[in-house]
């Protein structure tokens, strides 16, 4: 307790350069190694990066086991100017950095008792769980049981934990300090927004009344919590805060239509989204295809450092609102662009290989029972074979998904040269209005067959048809279109043709003819012989 | 219109020298409009001598010229030669104005449904007749077609 009182809350967020020879917490080295593996993986995907001298350091991760601080790790990576160091900083997010940095500052100094060590480990677990939740929230398909479990995790904040021991003055002060910090405020607003949303059904009047009551109650709680010596100044500050919160709550109160616009239709992909992504993919097609050429250099091969949160927030102006654009333009040949392509090509490679494996399994049809059984047979043989290494294998259902992507690519190989749908999850998003069909099954039925992605997919004597893109585009005019439409609409020829079709049908089979006749007569088709 | 036919004939004859453009029909799909029944333009009896891959050059063809962006046609890719040994899934071919779709006389296809909100579309349908192959017609000159909508291997849309 004494140590906590001596250490200001801000100290936890800061980074000290002092080095103290004290035992490191157990998670420090494994965490550093995880980050280094991330750096190594990323640099390997970028050929230009592996040529950098600092890449060699990553070959021996054990050399980092002796590191005593975050700064020392950076030095071992060749210092802040080196590429490996820059990548390392890029792949380390804010939470991870704050978790590792205090190892030097406060944790190494303070962690002398077992209890404090446990506290630190708990904080680390909380940070990791928070990260897992943040990642899970990015996934469109939330029905995955694992994702649901991750999202259901209750991350007890430090505030909550300290509530129980909130008798002393120190935790109260700490709590007040946190509530003033942006992060603390964010949490509070989020909770309020949820409460507000729930009370929305009660109508606007009830809503504002509830808000007033809540505020009063909050004020009472705050007043009771603060020391009697607390001055008027602090109360005024709280009132100001309340006003700010009230203002911001207005933003949190989105009506259902707005929420639908933001969150989409229950996670379903709309036709509109697919078309716009497809159009962008068509535009990028050539530049992605050009990347096949060996020695194609990066357009922008410098790594940007991590964002300076405070500076960015402070520097924002109403004159520069580019950040409000729905989509950011990321050059195909930039490191970021290549990273997403690399991810897609890895998924594609795996899918094609699994497609090949499944084809071989299908060829065994006569030997063993079902496909699932044959697949299981392979897994069993992998596990029991000589010198078998225990690896977790894909279930039949998971492998089948990859196989479907592989099949799709074998039919439409040009989709390799896009970066709009890069993961398995992307291809298995459900599409609105398609009876639960997923993107991989219905994309080709939604986009123009004459597009670069499909135009060569269909062969006349294999699929039965082929598309000649824009062959008559130069001849077609609006006048000609209107002329044909008028000609077709006025002609009585079509009903005759549909009736004729029904007669043909009746001639081939006697069953169901009345239904056919009905269907044909219901059609609003018109046709007229021109020549 | 005459110029249109001349240009189409010229461009297609370069690609399919053994075929001749004939019987050009303007077609209009109004909104809303139900889908046509799955069919082939020519009957198995007519095509009986040209169904083997070796005779692909002699297979009568048809073409569809889209006049409107978003012109749709339901097709069953691979459902040719009246092959019933496997099942065929349907797909929609989307065409843009000026696109030309060439398909075999034995391809299972159908005019797609147009829902409210779709665009009324206009297109030209023409036959590409193979040499020595006559299209059987009814007495009044309308071409015979062959329905495939009840075939088990042609999966429902």
Describe the secondary structure blueprint for this structure:
The complex is a heterodimer of chains A (531) and B (157).
Chain A: H1 2-6, H2 9-13, H3 28-45, H4 47-50, H5 70-76, H6 83-91, H7 94-100, H8 107-110, H9 114-138, H10 145-152, H11 158-164, H12 169-180, H13 182-199, H14 204-225, H15 232-252, H16 256-263, H17 271-290, H18 309-315, H19 335-363, H20 371-384, H21 396-411, H22 424-427, H23 439-442, H24 460-463, E1 465-468, H25 478-490, H26 493-508, H27 513-522, E2 525-529
Chain B: H1 2-15, E1 19-29, E2 39-40, H2 44-47, E3 61-66, E4 71-75, E5 91-95, E6 100-104, E7 109-111, E8 121-130, E9 146-147
Antiparallel strand pairs in B: 1-8, 2-9, 3-6, 3-8, 4-5, 4-7
The helix/strand class of chain A is mainly alpha
- The number of helical elements of chain A comes to 27
Largest sheet data of chain A = none
Instruction: Please identify the top-level CATH class of chain B.
Output: Mainly Beta
Largest sheet of chain B: 4 strands, antiparallel
Number of structurally distinct domains of chain B: 1
CATH homologous superfamily annotation of chain B: q2cbj1_9rhob like domain
Helix and strand sequence of chain A: HHHHHHHHHHHHHHHHHHHHHHHHEHHHE
Query: How many extended strands of chain A?
Result: 2
Shape of chain A: globular
Distance between the termini of chain A: 96 Å
Strand order, sheet with most strands of chain B: 1-8-3-6
Rg from alpha-carbon coordinates of chain A: 31 Å
Question: What share of residues are in beta strands of chain B?
Answer: 25-35%
């Amino acid at each position: 307790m004494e140590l906590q009182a001596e250490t200001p809350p801000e100290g936890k967020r800061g980074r000290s350069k002092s080095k103290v020879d004290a035992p490191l917490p157990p998670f420090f080295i494994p965490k550093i190694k995880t980050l280094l593996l991330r750096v190594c993986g990323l640099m390997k995907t970028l050929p230009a990066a592996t040529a950098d001298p600092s890449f060699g350091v990553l070959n021996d991760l054990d050399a980092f086991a002796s590191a005593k601080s975050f700064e020392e790790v950076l030095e071992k990576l060749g210092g802040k100017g080196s590429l490996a160091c820059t990548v390392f900083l890029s792949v380390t997010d804010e939470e991870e950095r704050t978790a590792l940095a205090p190892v030097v500052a406060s944790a190494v100094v303070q962690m002398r008792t077992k209890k404090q060590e446990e506290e630190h480990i708990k904080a680390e677990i909380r940070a990791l769980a928070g990260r897992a939740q943040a990642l899970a929230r990015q996934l469109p398909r939330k029905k995955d049981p694992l994702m649901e479990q991750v999202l259901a995790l209750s991350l007890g904040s430090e505030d909550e934990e300290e509530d129980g021991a909130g008798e002393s003055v120190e935790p109260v002060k700490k709590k007040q300090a946190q509530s003033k910090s942006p992060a603390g405020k964010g949490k509070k607003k989020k909770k309020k927004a949820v409460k507000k949303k729930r009370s929305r059904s009660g109508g606007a009047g009830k809503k504002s009344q509830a808000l007033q009551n809540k505020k009063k109650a909050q004020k009472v709680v705050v007043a009771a919590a603060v020391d009697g010596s607390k001055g008027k100044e602090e109360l005024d500050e709280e009132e100001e805060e309340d006003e700010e919160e009230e203002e911001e709550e207005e933003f949190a109160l989105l009506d259902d239509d707005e929420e639908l616009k933001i969150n989409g239709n229950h996670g379903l992909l709309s036709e509109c989204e697919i078309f716009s992504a497809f159009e962008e993919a068509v535009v990028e097609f050539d530049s992605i295809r050009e990347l096949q050429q060996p020695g194609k250099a990066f357009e922008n091969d410098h790594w940007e450092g991590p964002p300076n949160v405070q500076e960015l927030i402070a520097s924002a102006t109403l004159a520069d609102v580019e950040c409000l654009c729905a989509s950011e333009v990321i050059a195909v040949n930039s490191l970021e662009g290549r990273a997403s392509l690399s991810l897609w090509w890895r998924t594609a490679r795996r899918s094609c290989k699994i497609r090949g494996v499944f084809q071989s399994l299908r060829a065994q049809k006569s030997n063993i029972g079902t496909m699932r059984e044959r697949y299981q047979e392979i897994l069993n043989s992998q596990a029991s074979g000589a010198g078998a290494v225990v690896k977790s294998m894909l279930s039949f259902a998971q492998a089948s998904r990859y196989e479907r992507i592989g099949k799709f690519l074998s039919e439409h190989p040009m989709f390799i040269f896009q970066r709009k749908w890069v993961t398995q999850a992307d291809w298995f998003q459900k599409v609105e209005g398609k009876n639960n069909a997923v993107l991989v099954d219905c994309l080709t039925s939604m986009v123009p067959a004459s597009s670069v992605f499909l135009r060569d997919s269909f062969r006349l004597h294999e699929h039965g048809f082929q598309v000649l893109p824009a062959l008559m585009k130069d001849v077609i005019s609006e006048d000609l279109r209107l002329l044909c439409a008028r000609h077709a609409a006025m002609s009585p020829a079509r009903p005759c043709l549909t009736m004729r079709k029904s007669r043909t049908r009746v001639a081939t089979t006697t069953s169901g003819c009345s239904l056919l006749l009905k269907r044909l007569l219901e059609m609003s088709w018109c046709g007229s012989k021109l020549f | 219109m005459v110029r249109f036919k001349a240009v189409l004939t010229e461009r297609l004859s370069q690609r399919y020298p053994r075929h001749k453009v004939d019987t050009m029909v303007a077609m209009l799909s109004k909104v809303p409009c139900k889908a046509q029944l799955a069919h082939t333009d020519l009957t198995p009896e007519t095509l009986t001598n040209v169904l083997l891959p070796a005779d692909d050059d002699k297979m009568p063809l048809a073409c569809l010229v889209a006049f409107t962006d978003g012109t749709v046609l339901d097709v069953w890719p691979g459902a040719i030669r009246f092959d019933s040994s496997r099942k065929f899934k349907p797909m929609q071919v989307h065409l843009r104005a000026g696109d030309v779709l060439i398909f075999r006389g034995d391809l299972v296809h159908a005019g797609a449904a147009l829902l409210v909100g779709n665009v009324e579309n206009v297109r030209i349908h023409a036959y590409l007749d193979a040499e020595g192959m006559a299209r059987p017609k009814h007495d009044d000159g309308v071409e015979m077609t062959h329905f495939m909508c009840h075939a088990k291997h042609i999966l429902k849309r």
